[in-house]
């Protein structure tokens, strides 16, 4: 029988709550479709940092490399600088494994009210550049104690980096509604972004069935709220794609429902699946976290592993539970993570407790 070998890093905060919930449901989906998971749990994150001064062991990335995929919760703790937690785990994984596409579908879910009028049929995918751009490692430092203190970080956009993410977006759009919306600040103010436009235009030129639309990120923020159904595939730089994904998630009802796939499209390295949200220290330990983003990320992992039927089952299960009115507090409901997860597990065939 098929076995998928997955590295699990629950990480911090609500990651430790939503990851076990999702693993339980993914196991149920696997059983229904004749395959199984071999999960290897890595207890890496802020506790590891407190004990060892590092988010993961020195050979952490090599160990992850041996798996078919990585299932991540979130990292980040209020008492540790984010520079340590993020550059110590999340960002190195994305970079070492060349996960240059961060794929973030957002759509309105059954029974989940949007805070925005007219969002009922919103269905878009953000293709976020995931390894360069504004998140570059070039020049990133704070100049302390100079006559004038300053902080400088270079934005780095390479032709290769833009071309491959734009090509991915175009291919995705060709199988959807054919519209690629490229989001920049390319009115010459941010000097790197006219180059982004140029390379995106060249990449998409002559592609059958794909239309390119360009919009400035400030106008985009407004248009997403005013016309959330006007989009199909959105392609954006690392920073802009990050910001737009929380905005779009909130329009769908809560960032707690938004999934993300950090893809290495060439498949020479493992890809990583995680929710869009972070460790949510404000609700961690309360049993109130919405597990939908993690479950949906799990479904994206199933698709990536060649298990589309199981993926569809997982999505159908959490959609049915939401449609039944079972919702966590971020969606205006009164159910906790456990109650919501129990209901999803029932839909996936778990026997009720006796
Ligand atoms: P966050 O996404 O953790 O939380 C923002 C708000 O959304 C909070 O009010 C939180 O309670 C709510 N929220 C998030 N996920 C939810 C869920 N599943 N269910 C219900 N409510 C949810 O963002 P933040 O507070 O800015 O960041 C907290 C920490 O997480 C920081 O250390 C940050 O660096 C880190 N972070 C990590 C990742 C990641 O690991 N990929 C992503 C984003 C933020
Ligand atoms: C995300 C997060 C990360 C990002 C942070 C925590 C570095 O916000 O995955 O969306 O900006 O990529
Ligand atoms: Mn983010």
TrEMBL record:
EC number: 1.1.1.83
Keywords: Lyase, Manganese, Metal-binding, NAD, Oxidoreductase
Database matches in Gene3D superfamilies: Isopropylmalate Dehydrogenase (3.40.718.10)
One term of GO molecular function: tartrate dehydrogenase activity
Family annotation (InterPro entries): ICDH/IPMDH, IsoCit/isopropylmalate_DH_CS, IsoPropMal-DH-like_dom, TTC_DH
Domain (Isopropylmalate dehydrogenase-like) ranges: 5-344
Domain of life: Bacteria
SUPFAM superfamilies the record matches: Isocitrate/Isopropylmalate dehydrogenase-like (SSF53659)
Catalytic activity: (R)-malate + NAD(+) = pyruvate + CO2 + NADH
Names of required cofactors: Mg(2+); Mn(2+)
Similarity field: Belongs to the isocitrate and isopropylmalate dehydrogenases family.
Name of protein: D-malate dehydrogenase (decarboxylating)
Source organism of the structure: Actinopolymorpha cephalotaxi
Record lineage: Bacteria, Bacillati, Actinomycetota, Actinomycetes, Propionibacteriales
